[in-house]
What we know:
This protein is an alpha/beta fold. The chain has helices at about 15-25, 130-135, 190-200, 235-250, 260-275, 295-300, 335-355, 410, and strands at about 10-15, 30-35, 50, 60, 65-70, 80-90, 105-110, 120-125, 155-160, 170, 180, 205, 210-215, 220, 235, 250-260, 280-285, 300-310, 310, 320, 325-330, 365-370, 375, 380-390, 395-400, 415-420, 425, 430-435. Helix 1 (about 15-25) crosses helix 7 (about 335-355) and helix 4 (about 235-250) packs parallel to helix 7 (about 335-355). The chain is elongated and about 95 Å long. It starts with 10 loop residues before the first strand and ends with a strand. The protein binds adenosine monophosphate (AMP) and magnesium ion. Magnesium ion (MG) binds next to loops.
Amino acid sequence: MSQQHDQSIVLTGISVAEARENILRYFSPLPHVEVPLGESLGLVQAEDIYADIDIPPFANSSMDGYAVRAEDTQGASDGSPVRLRVVGYMPAGAAPQPGDFVGPGAAFRIMTGAPLPPGADAVIRFEDTSEGRALDNTHLLPQDAHAPSPKTGEDVLLYRSVEPGGSIRMAGEDVRQGELVLRAGTIVRPAEVGVLASVGCMLVKVHRRPRVAVLATGDELVEPDQAPGPGKIRNSNNYAVAAQLASWGAVPHNLGIARDNLEHLTAKLQQALALEPDLIVSSAGVSVGDHDLVKEALLQMGEVGVWRVRVRPGKPLLFGRLGSRGVPFLGLPGNPVSSMVGMELFGRPAVLKMLGKQDLLRPTITARTLEPLSNGGGREHYMRGIITTEEGEYVARTTGNQGSGILTSMHLANALLIIPEDVTYIEAGQTVRAMLLD
Ligand code: AMP
Ligand code: MG
């Protein structure tokens, strides 16, 4: 980057897609850190992971039953059972001892997950033996797995034949030692946590979580633990925005409320910069009111890149960079729905990109609307919607009042219904695109 101060070009009145593209240019995947496995959920792996051992590490039984030689079982049926001598007992966690061997005519009583004793090449489940037929199923598991088998030295009858390999899980049948099990770029979901644990990976190299400073602005705001006095309202934005950030994998820092004067706002923005955040998000003060000072502060302390997007709700959205390091700054509109929708459209993909994710946008579906939808035109309208299925088909309705102050509409919504900017009306029965929120 050049040393000289970038003369910023303000993009104004641009579409959602244009704004997103311009904003996302200022974000890249964050540096790698190692996190404990238990804290890796939702993060993106920054290295390839190879298996340190075979999984499973040894051939073992997939059933509670008897380890046998398959050839000994041939011809066994209800009418002519095969009789074998029980020569040992193998619970899960035990290892075959010297002398443990399943010779011709012999069987080892074996539990699920226990290693296959030498000589055996199949397992026959209890249900197909005299033990299973004699006992109620609930009595099959020994109370104490370490107790010696009461059956050793006795005979067991088999009523079925089994093939070699029957009810056996082979060593390495899931994963081979040295095999690439997870590639760099993989998102850690619960299944990946399990795979990582199975290869002994207790520290996971991932892209670190973005730190995000969250600031409210407005003289009318009180913190939610206060009862608002005359003319005051509770600051809900900081909490909703911080919760959105946390749900996407970022670490929010709530900086409280900046008042509607440049001095206090500037001090709060300095406080935000001191956190060395990857993103600063503010709400309100970006419109054209007398006290809408956020753009002015941003111009003084950095640069403005985008102002006003052709979106409903949330047109006065602001994006720029703050301070000498050029920390990305997202100035959300103040209305609670506008700020949450602004976060969905621009904050979320930025966070996901910093986390190293590839799919930055919510999935969209097509649904048949059960009610007419209208759009003032000229802006892409994101209506709070409820998607359900009717006879295997997605159907959409709105949450009701679409005012940008109706925060409960976000509570009711599971989707945003997207009305393109050149469409002013969608009749009931027609299709609408919907961005799924969860
Ligand atoms: P403004 O953009 O500053 O004109 O704010 C637009 C609307 O959003 C006003 O009705 C504000 O009272 C409201 N608002 C601003 N900040 C918050 C906040 N942190 N929590 C809830 N409502 C807010
Ligand atoms: Mg205001």
